[in-house]
Amino acid sequence: MKHLSYGLTLLCSLAIGAAQADTITDWNETARAVMKAANVGGNPASRTLAMVHVAMSDAVNSVQNRYTRYVATIPFVPDASAEAAASASARHVLVQLYPNQKALIEESFTVALKSIPEGAPKSSGLALGEQVAAAVQADRSNDGTHAPDTYRPFTSPGVWVPTTPPIFAQYAQAKPWVLKSADQFRPAPPPALTSALYARDYNETKSLGGMRSEARTEAQSASVKFWTQANLPDSWQQAARQLSAAKGLTLADKARLFALLNMGVANTFITDWDAKFTYNYWRPVTAIRNGDKDDNEGTERDAGWTPLNATPMHPEYPSQAAIICGVAVAVLEALVGPDPQIPITVTDFVDPNLKLDFPSIRTMAKQQSDVRVWGGIHFRNSLEVGEEMGRKIGAYLVANAVKPVS
Hints:
- The chain has 15 helices and 2 strands.
- By secondary structure, the chain is mostly helical.
- The model is unreliable at 1-20, 147-156 and 160-165 (pLDDT under 50).
C-alpha cells in the first residue's frame, strides 16, 4: 500500500473541503485531519472524537434542547446560534488537545463561522460553545487513558504476560463513557484449549491466516491489507457521514449520532482491555507454533507458522475490531433504521486513491471481522463474542445517553 505524506494545505482541504456538508460532519473531518497531522491514532484518537462530538451535541442541545446532555450543568441559551455553539465547542476541545495544530483548527473555524450572520445569537453561541467544551473537558480530565505503551511476548501456553505498567491493562481501570464500569459487559471466558470450538477456530485461522496460506484468495489478501489499524475505526466515521447525509438528518440528529458513535468506539478501548487482561488469551501465532502443548488432538503444531498481518502486542480475546463493528452497527441502525441498504464508500486513511465500496454497513462490518481471521491475528469465536459485546454496549448507550427530550 502506497503511503503519502501530507502537508498543511492538503490537510486543510480535508478538513474544510470545497463543498461544505454541515457543522457536525465538517468538524468530524477537521478532527480527523488534525489527528492525522499530529500522528495520533488508537485510544487517543477515539477519546478525541468522543470529546469533540459530545461537546458539540451538548452545545447544540443547550440551544435546541432536543436531546439530553452529557454534562447537564450548563444553562440553556435558546436564543443562541446552535451552529456557532457547536463550532466553538469543537474548536475549544481540539485546540486544548492539539495546540501544535492550531493553524489548521483556526482555518476550519474561520470557514465554519462565515455562514453564520453577525449578531447576538452568534456571539452567544460562541460563548456557550466554549463553556460547554470546558465542562466536557473537565469531566474527562482524569479519565485514566493517558500512558505510554509497553509489552513483552507470551511466555506460556494460552497466556499473555505483559510488562508493568501495560497501557491497555491500565485502560481497563479507565472511566468509560456512560457505562457503569469497564467490566459491565465483560464476556464469559474464551474456549478451553481442549475444546472442539478451540480446535475449529485454531484450524480456520491456521489455514486462512498464514503468510503462505493456499486457502486464502487474492481478494481476501487484498482486504486484509486494506483494513489497517487506521482504516478500521475511521471507516465508521465515513459511514456515519454518508448515512447521515443520505437520511438528511438535522443538526441535532447528526450531533446525537456522532456523539453516541464515538462514545461507543472510545469505550471499546476500555471495555476490551478489561476483558483482554482478565483472560490473557494467546494469539494465533503463539498458539499454532505451540499446538503440541494445548492437550487438544485436533490442533496440529506448525512451528514456522507466521500470520499475514503483524500480530498486535496485546491479548487476543475478545477482538476489539469486532467490538467496534458491533457498537457502530448498533448505534447507526438504532438512529437511521435497521440494516439500511445505503452504499458506503471507504477511503484509505493515508492514500485517498484507495477505496472500497460496500452495499451496506453490515457487509462492511462482516469484512472487517473476517480479515482478522484472514490476516491470522484472531480466532473466529473472539470475533463473534466481540461483535455481541459491541452491540450490547451500543444498545446501552442509545438507551441511556443523548435521549430524546420528552
